[in-house]
Amino acid sequence: MPVSRRSFLSTVAAAPLVLTHARAQTPEFTFVQYHNQTAESSLHRRISEMWAAIQKETNGRVAAEVFPLNNKVQGSDPVALKMLMAGEIQFFTLMGGVLSNAVPAGDVQQIPFVFRSAPHAHEAMDGPLGAYIREEMAAKGIHGFPVGAFDNGIRQMTLVNKPIAMPADLKGIRMRVPDGQLFQDLFRTLGAEPIVINSIDIYSALKSGKADAQENPLALLENFKLYEVVKYVSMTNHMWSGFNQMAHRPTWQKLPADIRTIIDRHVTRAVRLQRADQEAANGRLRAELTTRGLIFNDVNQAPFRKALTGFYATWKEKLGTKCWRLLEEATNTSLA
């Protein structure tokens, strides 16, 4: 079961701070960085490299302990978000659909069937739409980075017992979703029964029958070994998924300008490297997962878009005119 907020803090406090460079001086600034991917993921590797490089360039003035999702620290994303906003952890990566629990504009990153590819989404996040989201984050005490959207990839539907070809195929399917209202509205509109389950528990939910399906980029099937418990992969390409690198804003504002500049630069570099990693992984995994026995089918998006006409109108109203306009400009679409 996911640990409590108190247990998370106890674990963080008890963990030794790993210093890889500049042991000659005690760090002026020590941080906790949390993310919800595995220790084997590209996200964890690039974030760990990033903080090691920051520590080296600052001559040991800055050090951070990076906590991935694992059996030792597994607080849910909404809990970790509250901890970030309270300053109990200082850095956190989180997808927009869960960020929206505090920053409603975050949901714009998860609007379905608008991003043609991950690079298409990256352009939007690095441009005016991303700048708008960061402005909304700042109003809630969260600092976002100009190039701060790590990549997860385009999401696909994976099922235990059957493939998906048309919206009608989702009727009654118990679909695992993250803790975000947009995900629940999307799959309820398409006829499925959305079930909120934390990332660490997706495998057991599928294996036990609590969930019939889940939806994520292909890389997650590999990182979480979901290929052991699902059989069908429907290539719906229904949604882009990323991880926003965020900082506790009051902590960020107190840092010296030179430290902020160094962190900014290394976040940008890590994001670009991790995006390339993830694109390569999602590109090769269809062939590799096929050899593991998974059955793939390509899906025509048109019937799904048609089924979401009312959904788009509702979410345009929720996100507001400015946010929706920036989305349509960034994606060259007209949705509602």
Task: Give a brief outline of the structure.
By secondary structure, the protein is α/β, with parallel strands linked by helices.
How does this structure look, described?
By secondary structure, this protein is of the alpha/beta class. The chain has a single domain, classed as 3-Layer(aba) Sandwich (D-Maltodextrin-Binding Protein, domain 2), CATH 3.40.190. The chain has helices at residues 5-14, 42-57, 77-86, 96-99, 118-125, 128-138, 181-189, 202-208, 218-223, 249-254, 257-291, 302-307, 309-319, 321-331; strands spanning 29-34, 62-67, 91-94, 142-159, 174-177, 193-196, 213-216, 232-248, 295-298. Strands 1, 2, 3, 4, 5, 6, 7, 8 and 9 form a nine-stranded mixed sheet that branches. Helix 2 (42-57) packs antiparallel against helix 11 and helix 6 runs antiparallel to helix 14. The longest helix is centred in the C-terminal third of the chain and has 35 residues, at 257-291. It is globular and about 60 Å long. The model is unreliable at 14-24 (pLDDT under 50).
Number of domains: 1
Measured on Cα atoms, how large is the radius of gyration? 20 Å
CATH fourth-tier homologous superfamily: Bacterial extracellular solute-binding protein, family 7
Taken as a percent bin, the fraction of beta residues is 15-25%
| Structural class by helix and strand composition | alpha/beta
Q: Helical proportion?
A: 40-55%
What is the average of the pLDDT values? 91
Separation, N- and C-terminal Cα atoms:
41 Å
Assigned CATH architecture? 3-Layer(aba) Sandwich
CATH topology: D-Maltodextrin-Binding Protein, domain 2
Helix segment count?
14
